[in-house]
Specification:
The chain is mainly alpha-helical. Helix content is about 75%, strand content about 0%. The chain is built from twelve helices and no strands. The protein is globular and about 55 Å long. It starts with a helix and ends with a helix.
Amino acid sequence: MLKKSLAICLLAAAVFVPVFADQHYAEARPVPPAAGDTLVPPRVREQNELQNISERFGVKTSELQKYFNMGWGFKELRHAAVLTLATDKNMGEILTLKQSNSWPRVEYLLGVTPNDMKAARDKNDARYFAGKLNVSETELLALLQQNYGVGDSLHAMLLAKAGNTTAENVLKMHNPPQTSWRDVAESLGVSFAQLEQIRENIDMVK
């Protein structure tokens, strides 16, 4: 009798556990987007990223799409695009080399030095951001060549424009963590709202 009761209990437990498990997992739901957020379809994100690379480096979107469809990722396409600016090679020639080599090896085979890569990036960044933010390409390139970062250079140039001074003076005033961009803005008579707009403008085109 005891054996029969035990068998019945075990059978009931075997039935109950899967049912409970199914109920538990059935309750799982995808996390809904936060208020104000919009779900962007993968295809749209893909097109946006390829368009961004195209504008940033002057490569046709159709060419980028071709290589993306072949399996090349966005980071690889960006790196290859920079190398087209530092050499006389096109995207296809560079990606063919990359198939069997690391990026440092590709750069070695192309005879490209770190200084060549920086020079290509600086020149391209100056062209791109000057066009997007209506600042002097020559002045921006000069700051980048002095090893100021893109973000600092753009903050300095836009704050200088708002505060009626020069970017060089603004960069001298900026000394984090002692002196933040907000401190610099206050010293120049630039409001917090203006500073936030400057930041937003930079973030939109990065």
